[in-house]
Amino acid sequence: MSDLAPTEDSPGKGTASIEKALTLMLSLVEEEGRLPASRLAEKLGLPPSSARRMIGALSDAGVITRISHGHYAAGPALERISEYSGTRARLIRIAQVPLRRLAQGTGATAHLGVLEGEMVTYLARESADPNFSASQIGAQFEPYCTGIGKILLAGLPSEAREAFFASGPFVPLTANTLTDPLLLRAEVEKSAGQGYAIDEAEMFENVRCIAAPIQREGRTIAAVSLSRLGGPVPSSRRARDLARLTVCVDDISKVLG
Questions:
Q1: What CATH number is given for 86-256 in this structure?
Q2: Does this chain's domain 11-82 share its CATH topology with 86-256?
Q3: What is the DSSP string of 14-30?
Q4: Which residues of 239-248 are buried (b: 16+ CB within 10 A; e: fewer)?
Q5: 88 φ/ψ angles, rounded to the nearest 5 degrees
Q6: Which residues, including other chains, have CB under 8 Å from residue 183's CB and lie 6 or more apart?
Q7: Domain 11-82 belongs in CATH node 3.40.50.620
C-alpha cells in the first residue's frame, strides 16, 4: 500500500465522506420524501451501513426530518439556514454596518426599506438622534409621502408606476404632502432622473429626508433614507448628506453583487 493512500482517519477519506453525506442530503431534500432513503442511497452507490450512519447524523442535527418510515425531507435546521440566507435576511445583514456608519457620520437616522404591494416596509433602522421616534423596524408607510417611497416608485417599471398614480386618492398627511397625481408623477420622474428623492416634511411635520436606491443587476430592490428632525435642510448639509448616502447604498449594492 502506498504511503499516500487514504487511511481511516486521513483527510482525503474524511472529505470524501463529507461530500457523499452532502450529496445524500441534497438528494433527500430535492426528492421531498417521494423516494425512500434506501433507494436514493443505492442510486448514489452508498453502502447501506454508510447511508444509515449519514442519515442518522443528518437527522440528529435537524438537517433532515423523517416524514414516514424510510422517507425524509428538509428539517428545521435546514429551513433556518434557508431563512437566514434568503435575499431579505442577507440584505438586512449587509446593510447594518453601512447604515450605522451613515447615521453616526451625519448625526441623523438611517432607514432601509422595500416596497411591499403599495406600502413601504422598514427593514432596518440606525439612529444617532435620541429624539427621533417617528419610525420603527417593521413600520409601514405610504410611498407617495416619503423619500424612500418615492425613490422605490421611481425604480418600478413604467406600467407599475402608472398603476400606482391611478390608485389614489392620496390623503394629505401634512401641509406639504403631494396629493395631485400629476405633481406626484413629476416628482417621482425627477427622482428617477437625479438618482435620489426628497421628503420635505410630507409624512411628518418636522421630519425631512433624502433617499437613494439599492440596485442589483440594474434593478432597484430596496432603498436607504436619511432622516432629520427640524426645519428645511440647508443646501450645503443636504449635499453632504447625499454624498454619505451615496457611499452607503454603493457599499450595500457592491456586497450584494
A1: 3.30.450.40
A2: no
A3: HHHHHHHHHHHHHHHHH
A4: eebbebbeeb
A5: -65, -45
A6: none
A7: no
Asked if 123 contacts 113 with a C-beta cutoff of 8 angstroms, the reply is: yes
What does 176-195 look like in DSSP terms, one character per residue? T----HHHHHHHHHHHHHHT
pTM to 2 decimals?
Answer: 0.69
Q: What is the pLDDT along the chain (257 residues), one digit of tens a residue?
A: 334 444 444 445 567 778 888 888 888 888 888 888 888 888 888 888 888 898 889 888 888 888 888 888 888 877 666 655 577 888 999 999 999 999 999 999 999 999 988 899 999 999 999 999 888 898 999 999 999 999 999 999 999 999 999 988 999 999 999 999 999 999 999 999 999 999 999 999 999 999 999 998 889 999 999 999 999 999 999 999 999 999 999 999 999 87
Q: Which amino acid is at 218?
A: G
What are the boundaries of each domain within the chain?
Answer: 11-82, 86-256
Grid look-up 428539517 returns 75
